[in-house]
Every structure is written in structure tokens, then in C-alpha cells.
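Q: For a teaching handout, I want to show students what a protein-ligand complex looks like in C-alpha cell form. Below are the inputs, and the small molecule is aspartic acid. Please produce the holo structure.
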Amino acid sequence: MKVLKFGGTSVANSKILKKVLEIIKNQNEQIIIVVSALGGITDLLMEMLSLAQSRKDNFKSNLALIEKRHLEPIKKCIPIQNQSSIISYLKKHLNELESLLDAIFLLEEVTVKNNSAIAAYGEILSSNIIYEILRYNGVKSKLKDARELIQTETYFEREIVNQTITVNQIKNYFDKNKSDVTIIPGFIAKNKNGVTTTLGRGGSDYSAAIIASIVRADLLEIWTDVSGMYTAHPKIVAQAKPIKKLSYYEAMELSHFGAKVIYPPTLQPIIEKNIPIVIKNTFAPQDSGTLIDNSINNENGEIVKGISHIDNVAMINLEGSGMIGITGFSKRLFEALSDKDINVIMITQAS
Ligand code: ASP
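A: Here is the structure, written as C-alpha cells, with aspartic acid included.
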């Protein structure tokens, strides 16, 4: 069994969704598909939320844009006689979304609960639309709401996955359901009170990793808009080329220092279970992409696999004779940074 995760750019419009359809049709084993929101939709939703909160009623124009973006693939990928139910599903959800935003507009207040409820619309709509596209293009599949599979709990103001319940729910579901193709929205989950939560921005990779690790998939394919991890940032270095093979640790190092293609903390569950990952390009599916697993390949003497870089980093140098022999100043420094949610990527202390 394989898990295929399609990111936002891979499901952004009818043109690329037709490629996704081909990729899915070419599979010859049981697959689970995890989908992101249509590219840019989560940003639009979040922007709308802050407009409504600051009593700017132009949030309605985003709503119209969101409707247009979702109608496009419906109109282009589903036969006209089969479009009505998904269009009314879309309209119903957009009306709900509008009511939520009207309430935020009036109250001028956003709660964590509202924030997640609004952010979740992207994946709720994309998964339902993609399910209908598959259905009317000859791919029989089952749609499963991730909120019935992944449960979160709050831990220091963050949502973390409740492992025990999530493992049980996912195992139970896939033990009973042997559909060849199952489609699941990424990013969204539910807490024990049944309230919609999210796994954080970019969280669809994490959804896919959780599911792949629990069903013990043979492979996790991350379908994106580049042909794998590159030897350097391809927009900056013209000679950069995709890396064929990396170990988990090499991929983590590159990502830690700026490579954006995978976000290792979210992939931890599959690294633990030793499930290989392939990064593939939806726009060029014939490209082999990058395979990431637990073996290191230095065959051609290629010890350095790539160079990554990070923008917008500050270096802080804390020095002074008053620190000599004084305990606790590092604690105070790092606490101050952590209080402001500043991530520290490298630490060094000289004498
Ligand atoms: N749609 C969500 C985001 O843009 C999650 C994801 O795509 O991974 O953050």
C-alpha cells in the first residue's frame, strides 16, 4: 500500500488536477491519497479572518475569489450533468463560512476554535471536489474525513496528535475498508469534544506521514511542484539539479538549513517506521524525483549532497565580562527568545 500526498500547487486548478487524475489512474496497488487545499486558499482564508476581525468588510471579495477558484475545476473536470450536487455542497459551505466571518466581524474577536474552523474549509472543499472529479472520471474511491481518523489534544497551547486514539481510529478504519483508492483531506483533525482542529500550517505532510506510519505503507509519495530536493535552491543557482537519493538524516540536515521541500518534524512518524519517501513533481511525473530512506549512498564519492541556505536569519552575539562564572544567563537569554517565539537554529559558546 502507498500513500500519495498532493500539495496545494498540485491541486490548484483543473489543468494540474488532470495530471493528478492520470497519476492516480496509473497506480496499480491500494493507495491512500492525502490532499491539501487548492494552492493559496488557506492564505486567503486566513487573510479573510484577519480582515473580518479588524472590521474590514472587504473580506467578502476573498469569499467571491474562493468560490471562483473552486468552481473552475468543477466546471472543467466534471461533466455538466453531474456538477449540481458538488456545486450546492460548495455554496452551502461558503454560506456557512460567510456566517462565521460575519460573526467575527461583529464580535471583533477570533478564538482558536474559529481560527481552525475557518482554516479547515480549504481541505474540506478540496477533498470533496477531488473525490467528485475522480468519481466522474472513472476512478472509484472512498472519501474519508480526516477528522474521524486523527484526534488532537492541546499541549502548551499547541495541538498535538493523541497517538493512542489516532492509531486505533486509523487501524480500525483501514482494517474494515479495503477500497483501492481512499481520499483524505490533509491538515485537519478533531479534538475529543468533536471540535475541528488543524495540524498547523503545512500540516498535510504530517497527516500523510501519520497515516502512512499507522497503515505501515510501503512508500510515501509527496507530490509537489519541483522534481525532488535539489543540490541548491534552483531559483538562485542555475546549475542546481535534483538529488536522486538521500538518507533521512541528510534530508533533515538540508531541511534544517533551509531546503523547503520536506519538513522533517512532520515526517518523524515515518522515519521511525523506516518507510521510504519519494518527492515527485506533479508537473513532470516522468522525473524520478528524490528517494529518501535510511541508507546513505556515497557510491560516486558524493559526500556533499547539496547546499541549502536560509533567508532572514539574525545572528546575536552576547558578550561581556559580567558573564564570567555567572550561572543562568544562557537560561535567561534562551527563555527571552522562546517567549517571543523565536526559533534558534544554531548555538555556539566561546570561552
Ligand atoms: N493547506 C494548509 C496550508 O496551506 C496545509 C497544507 O497545505 O499542508 O498550510
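A: Two things your students might notice: The first helix runs from residue 14 to 25. The chain is about 40% helix and 15% strand.
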